[in-house]
């Protein structure tokens, strides 16, 4: 069984930075394309960033391009989301997702992800 555990969320002032981590256990991490999504109160879960199995291909929603960076360390079974120049509109619960083993491409569609973590709260406020 695959388990994903997010960490690194918290309260930060506008313009600040956070790094989210997602630790994967239960199967060989190197086979999983991974993604980060976020959900604000009363809204749907939205795509933020994704990374392919190899780590060579990434994708971002337009609103975070140039500010957020997704990366992975297959030796540590961990995927990261470095978030810089944070804005109040980035406030949400951030979820890490993993695709099934047959799918190596990064995907922007939450429906393509088979496994999810419990989420970590990110609050950007002065």
Write structural notes for this entry.
The protein is 0% helix and 48% strand. With 126 residues, it is mainly β. Strands 2, 4, 5, 6, 9, 10 and 11 form a seven-stranded mixed beta sheet that branches. A hairpin with a 6-residue loop joins β5 (46-51) and β6 (58-60). It is globular, with a radius of gyration of 13 Å.
Q: Over all CA atoms, what is the radius of gyration?
A: 13 Å
Helical run tally: 0
For the sheet with most strands, the description reads:
7 strands, mixed
Assembly classification: single chain
Output mean pLDDT.
94
Our estimate of the beta-strand percent is over 45%
Shape: globular
Helix content: under 10%
Structural category is mainly beta
**Cα distance spanning the termini:** 40 Å
């Amino acid at each position: 069984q695959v388990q994903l555990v997010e960490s690194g969320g918290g309260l930060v002032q506008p313009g600040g930075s956070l790094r989210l981590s997602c630790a994967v256990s239960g199967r060989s991490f190197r086979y999983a394309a991974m993604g980060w999504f976020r959900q604000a109160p009363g809204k749907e879960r939205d795509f933020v960033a994704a990374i392919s199995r190899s780590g060579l291909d990434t994708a971002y929603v337009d609103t975070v391009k140039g500010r957020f960076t997704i990366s992975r360390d297959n030796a540590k079974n961990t995927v990261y989301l470095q978030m810089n120049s944070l804005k109040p509109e980035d406030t949400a619960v951030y979820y890490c997702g993993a695709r099934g083993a047959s799918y190596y491409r990064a995907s922007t569609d939450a429906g393509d992800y088979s496994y999810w973590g419990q989420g970590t709260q990110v609050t950007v406020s002065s």
